[in-house]
Design goal:
Elements (H helix, E strand, L loop, with lengths): L2 H4 L4 E4 L5 E6 L5 H9 L3 H8 L5 H10 L7 E8 L2 E10 L5 E8 L8 H15 L4 E7 L3 H8 L5 E6 L2 E7 L4 H23 L3 E5 L8 H11 L5 E5 L5 E2 L2 E4 L11 E4 L6 H11 L3 E4 L6 H14 L2 E3 L5 E4 L6 E4 L7 E8 L2 H14 L3 E6 L8 H10 L5 E5 L6 H11 L5 E4 L14 H5 L2 H12 L2 E3 L2 H13 L8 E5 L2 H13 L9 H8 L7 E2 L3 E2 L6 H13 L5 E6 L3 H6 L5 H4 L9 E5 L6 E5 L5 E5 L2 H19 L13 H14 L4 E2 L2 H9 L9 E3 L2 H11 L5 E7 L12 E6 H16 L5 E6 L5 E10 L3 E8 L4 H4 L2 E5 L4 H9 L4 H4 L10 H17 L3 E12 L2 E4 L2 E5 L14
Parallel strand pairs: 5-6, 9-10, 9-13, 10-12, 13-14, 14-15, 18-19, 18-20, 20-21, 21-22, 23-25, 23-26, 26-27, 27-29
Antiparallel strand pairs: 1-2, 2-3, 3-4, 4-5, 6-8, 7-8, 11-12, 16-17, 16-19, 24-25, 28-29, 30-40, 31-34, 32-33, 32-34, 35-36, 35-38, 36-37, 38-39, 38-40
């Protein structure tokens, strides 16, 4: 067992029934409990575990698990309430890539996922040690353990030898395995949230007698909101509050509550949480703010040790509008309207704004969680709840931080195929979290990282709460467009121009109508109408004429959406025409989205009832309508594209790459920038092509290298190198266009003169041919993981800032998006007659970079600038790689925060 694995802290995770267990490494002091685990098993279970019912096996098993640690052996246990309830082990033999595993679960706790959870953690630990295969022997009648292995999601084979079965389990982490882990995690997560969002009994701890106190307001909301379960208040100084019976403490309650709302001063929160846990409470909602570090740590310790899920602290509360529950444990001004939108926020103020906006629009809320400081329950938890609750069809998020972005991404990718997931990209990040040590790190802003997450996951990211509500109104009420082609109809030319500008600025397209469509529309409109796009129907248009025009445009195959920009006129008022009815007077649902812009509207967005059922969104500003339509078009495009896959790459040598990294960090324990030779070795492990080069430490060696590398034009490039040199151009550490031996010698002497003992040596390269200079790099974000960047390269890369980013590992779709997103993309496809570059090799370079970043958590950043792309190929002209001593993390391992 390696020191790295021994140092891993214990974690808490959820079983299939939603209860919490602690997973940790076995220690010597666990001997008696482990022996008791086996001694308390029935003879039948002992026989299935050891192939015999000998009680002596219990001591031997405990001795083995608690023996001094040694390489190739790993033992993990699961415990609940300080009681060991399961054990899983592996041990390698002569073949260090393969380990034998065994598992034991306490009697009475089978079928709760204890064994599966332990095996998942054992798989993660084994992968970190380079183990690729598990083997296990079982009796053929031990159907439970055989089913456990089969259902893991890993590739498993069996061979029979009499009454015994030999199972061989490959540990490759593919999408099948991750999907199986997700499914188990989702079921456990939803079960754990039941006492939080569907409690049968609620107690408000700290409900005060003073009007205006937070606890009293929450109690009032629970009571007046019509909570269907039993409601109690905990206050030692009162017999009842607001007609709700009071008790002096949680243990004194006549019934153990599923959910306790804690509204006591910060100093009293840890004791209140511990009291709740000992009484058997299963979920806490802590609205109290201002906990210091010690109080926060004690609160979490109580929740984990007693298996309670926690929302907060420092939050507005939670609500669930299901008629069977009617839970409103918030201190918002009003009760949320029941509906179909799930809402999770960190900011209470944002939560109030969203609750009010959704109620006003008539969308309403299915469930709401103000996550506050988000110690436990997160946006990921709520997404999984909404996915399973059968009521939610729209998810709205406001998250200021991410605990596990890669797990969130996988969940969001799945959920957003079933319902729109919208978020406010508020830009709240930790400033200066990463030093801009290279072009890559300078370009990788936190905003870019979050947007990459949202884009890849299919999350609709908006810039404000207002935009979120505007987009939610359209996605809730209208079908998705098939594309981004919009027709604008107006009764005032100026309003049409404003709408057209807004649509184009939002990335939408206003196609011209075909001649036959123009003739068709002119026949339906009053004299003087202009049928371009926008269609100016003039102030003389009647309600029936405009409705006819809308219907005709919707039938047009070249249009994906219709935007009606209207202004009130005296003409319409005099004739009694209501032009808005041109959109709202329908005979049933439409197959294309329609929306209105009414410049005189008092609210930013309304949902207007349609006669044929449903609603039509109406906006006060054309920009709002255009943004909403653009978000809908992007969502439709994301849904229409199949889920991407991470391509298998030929020529990748992950084992050699790990060896290079380990050797470098052994020599440089604090990490650092790789020297050119080590860097080239690492890049070769991933098939990343570099221009030919040579290392020269003397003047004569530089001349020999130049003679060998000169191309047809006879010119070479020389670059100085010393540890930590990053920006060569700024240091004037590059000489270009060197011809002949004399210029090579002069360049080398210049480096020696200016840099002295700092100089380690030089890199000599042939002068590169003409081509497009690009930039590619990766930076390892401590929270989000590796981020791959791509864009225009050269010395102006940071000035121009023409970069796109995606989180690794890149799928085939991600790498295509990465190449096409920057503004320089047309140059790669042959703009201005230059001819396209070798796109296949460019994609291969980016995929190799992504794979390197995903394989090596020690890769802090890589910077390829420039990358030369031509029609004949792609090569890296300058590469820098920085390593740090980092422990590998498994973002998909089931564990609570």
């Amino acid at each position: 067992m390696t020191d790295d694995l021994l140092s891993r802290p214990p974690v808490h995770a959820l079983l299939a029934d939603g209860t919490t267990v602690r997973i940790r490494a076995v220690e010597r002091g666990d001997h008696e409990q482990l022996r008791g685990l086996y001694e308390e098993m029935s003879p039948e279970n002992l026989r299935l575990r050891f192939f015999a019912a000998s009680r002596r096996s219990a001591k031997l098993a405990a001795d083995r698990a608690c023996a001094p640690p040694h390489r190739g052996y790993r033992a993990l246990l699961a415990e609940r309430a300080d009681q060991v309830i399961g054990l899983a082990e592996y041990e390698t033999g002569e073949d260090i890539d393969t380990a034998e595993i065994s598992i034991a679960v306490a009697d009475g706790l089978h079928h709760r996922g204890v064994g599966t959870l332990l095996i998942e953690h054992l798989v993660s630990a084994a992968r970190a040690e380079g183990i690729t295969t598990f083997t296990a022997d079982a009796l053929s009648e031990n159907h439970e353990v055989l089913r456990l292995f089969h259902d893991l999601g890993l590739r498993t084979s069996r061979s029979f030898d009499g009454p015994e079965v030999r199972c061989t389990i490959g540990l490759t982490e593919d999408d099948t395995y991750l999907t199986a882990v997700e499914a188990r995690g989702r079921a456990a997560d939803v079960a754990s949230l039941e006492p939080l969002l569907r409690p049968r009994t609620v107690a408000v701890v700290g409900a005060g007698r003073k009007p205006g106190s937070v606890g009293r307001v929450v109690l009032h909301h629970l009571r007046t909101g019509g909570f269907t379960g039993r409601l109690f208040a905990v206050n030692p100084a009162a017999a009842s509050i607001l007609g709700v019976p009071c008790h002096p403490s949680v243990p004194a309650l006549p019934q153990t509550p599923d959910l306790a709302v804690v509204a006591v001063p910060a100093a009293a929160v840890p004791a209140a949480a511990e009291e709740c846990g000992k009484a058997g409470v299963r979920a806490l909602l802590v609205v109290t703010a201002g906990l210091d570090r010690d109080q926060a740590r004690a609160l979490m310790a109580a929740c984990r040790s007693h298996g309670m899920r926690l929302v907060g602290p420092n939050c507005l509360g939670i609500s669930h509008t299901d008629p069977a529950v009617r839970l409103d444990a918030t201190f918002a001004a009003d009760h949320p309207s029941p509906g179909t939108a799930g809402v999770a926020v960190q900011s209470g103020g944002v939560g109030i704004a969203l609750l009010d906006g959704l109620s006003r629009l008539g969308i309403g809320v299915s469930s709401f969680a103000s996550l506050g400081d988000k110690y436990d329950v997160s946006g990921n938890d709520m997404l999984q709840w909404w996915e399973s609750d059968g009521r939610t069809d729209l998810a709205l998020l406001h998250l200021e931080s991410f605990g596990n972005p890669r797990a969130f991404s996988r969940t969001a990718r799945r959920v957003t195929r079933r319902m729109p997931v919208l978020t406010v990209d508020a830009g709240r990040t930790e400033a200066g979290r990463r030093a801009a040590a290279s072009h890559t790190a300078a370009a990788a802003t936190p905003t870019m990282t979050r947007r990459a997450l949202f884009t890849q996951a299919g999350v609709t990211a908006t810039g404000s709460v207002g935009e979120l509500l505007e987009t939610a109104a359209l996605l809730h009420s209208q079908p998705l467009p098939a594309g981004s082609r919009v027709a604008i109809l107006t009764n005032a030319g100026g309003a049409g121009v404003l709408a057209a500008d807004a649509c184009v600025e939002a990335g939408l397209v206003l196609p011209a109508f075909a001649p036959e469509v123009v003739d068709d529309l002119l026949g339906a409109l009053p004299r003087g109408a202009s049928v371009g796009n926008p269609v100016d129907a003039t102030a003389a248009v009647t309600e029936e004429q405009l409705k006819d025009c809308v219907d005709r445009v919707l039938r047009h195959g070249g249009i994906d959406a219709v935007l009606l920009a209207l202004v009130p006129t005296a003409v319409a008022a005099a004739t009694g025409d209501d032009l808005v009815r041109a959109l709202t007077d329908t005979h049933g649902p439409r197959t294309k989205p329609v929306a209105a812009v009414r410049l005189e509207q008092d609210l930013p967005v309304r949902l207007l009832p349609a006669t044929g059922g449903g609603t039509i969104p109406s906006y006060a500003e054309p920009q709002a309508a255009a943004r909403a339509l653009a978000h809908a078009a992007l969502r439709a495009a994301w849904l229409a594209r199949p889920a991407g896959t991470v391509p298998d790459l030929d020529g990748v040598d992950t084992g050699r790459a790990h060896g290079i990294v380990e050797a470098f960090l052994a020599a440089h324990p604090d990490g650092g920038w790789l020297d050119p030779r080590t860097c080239a070795d690492l890049l070769s492990c991933y098939g990343i092509p570099q221009i030919p080069w040579a290392w020269a430490e003397t003047e004569d060696a530089a001349v020999l290298a130049a003679d060998r590398l000169r191309g047809p034009d006879g010119r070479v490039v020389m670059k100085a190198h010393w540890p930590g040199l990053v920006h060569k151009s700024e240091q004037r550490a590059v000489h270009l266009d060197l011809q002949g031996d004399s210029q090579v010698r002069a360049a080398f002497r210049d480096f020696e003169t200016r840099f002295g003992d700092l100089l380690d040596g030089t890199v000599v390269q042939p002068l590169a041919p003409r081509g497009t200079e690009l930039f590619a790099g990766v930076v390892q974000d401590e929270v989000f993981g590796p981020l791959v960047l791509f864009g225009l390269g050269g010395t102006a890369t940071e000035v121009l800032g023409d970069h796109a980013a995606r989180l690794a590992p890149l799928t085939d779709h991600d790498v295509h998006d990465l190449i096409t997103a920057p503004r320089c993309a047309p140059l790669l496809f042959g703009a201005r007659g230059s001819g396209p570059v070798d796109l296949a090799r460019l994609e291969r370079l980016l995929l190799g970079l992504s794979r390197m970043a995903a394989d090596l958590p020690q890769l802090a950043e890589a910077d390829f600038n420039p990358v030369l792309a031509t029609s004949a190929g792609v090569s890296v002209l300058d590469a820098r790689v920085r390593l740090l001593p980092r422990r590998p993390q498994d973002p998909y391992l089931r564990r609570l925060r």
